[in-house]
Amino acid sequence: MNPLFTFDDYGELLGLVHTSIIAAALLGIVGGLISVFVTTRDMAFAVHGVSELSFAGAAFALLIGGDVVLGSMAGSVLAAVIIGLLGSKARDRNSIIGVLMPFGLGLAILFLALYQGRAANKFGLLTGQIVSISPDQLRLLLVCGTVVLIALAVMWRPLMFASIDADVAAARGVPVRLLSLAFMVVLGLAVALSVQVVGVLLVLALLITPAAAAMRVSASPVWVPVLSMSFALISSVGGILLALASPVAPISPMVTTISFVIYLICRLVGRRRMGKLASWRRATADQAGASVAA
Question: Which of 148, 196, 218, 227 is least enclosed, having the fewest CB within 10 Å?
Fold first, then answer.
C-alpha cells in the first residue's frame, strides 16, 4: 500500500508546478472576494447551477477538440446571463437554476459519452486539472482574473449595498438590476476559473466556504473580504503543495479538506467569541440592574 504522504523529490516536483501555483493563487484571490457576495446574497445554489453549465461547455470543448478553459467560460457566462436576466428575485432565480442544472448536466453527460479520448480527460473536468494548465491557459486565466478583480473594485460599494438591502438601495437610486446582472457575469467567470482548480463537483469550496468561515469570526466590512481571500488562497495553493507530497491523493480533495478545516476552526473561534460576548452582555446588564436598584 502506498504511503499517503512522502517528501522524496519534493523540491524537483515543486519546480514543475510553478505555473499551477500562480494560477491557484490568482483563483484563490478571485474566489475569496466573490465568495463574500455569494454568501451575502445567498447564492450558493446559483454557483452550483452555473458550474453545471460550465461543465457542459467544457465537455463540449473536449468533444470537438477545443480549449476546455474557453468552453468552461462560455458555459458559465451563458448560464450566469440567463439566471441574471430571468431570475431577478430569489424565488424566480431558484426556479431558473433548477431548470438549467439538469439540462446542463444532461448535455455534459451526452458530450462525454460521445467523446472517444482518454478517460482521464473526462475525470479532470469533474475534479480539476490545474496541474496540466498550459502557459496559454495561464495567460487567459490572468486576463479573466484581472477583469473580475477590476469589475469588483468598481462596483464593490453599490453592490454590497444592494446585496444587504436591495429595496432601500433601489429607493436611493442604485441600479440594483443592472448590478445583479453584472455580478452574475462576474460570478460566471469566477466559477469557470475555479473549475480549473477543484473541478465542477467541488467548486463550492472556493466560492462559498471562505466567506462563510470569515463571517464566523468577524463582521467587519474590511476584515471579512481580507480573511475570505486569505482562506481561499491558503486552500488553493496549500492544496497543490500538499498534493505534491502525496502519490495517491489528487489536488481537489486537498483543497476542499483545507477549506473545510479552516471553516471548522473559524466556527469554533466564532462560538467562543460569541460566548464571551454573551457573558459580557449578561455581566453588564446585571451590573446596570444592580446600580438601578441601589
Answer: 218
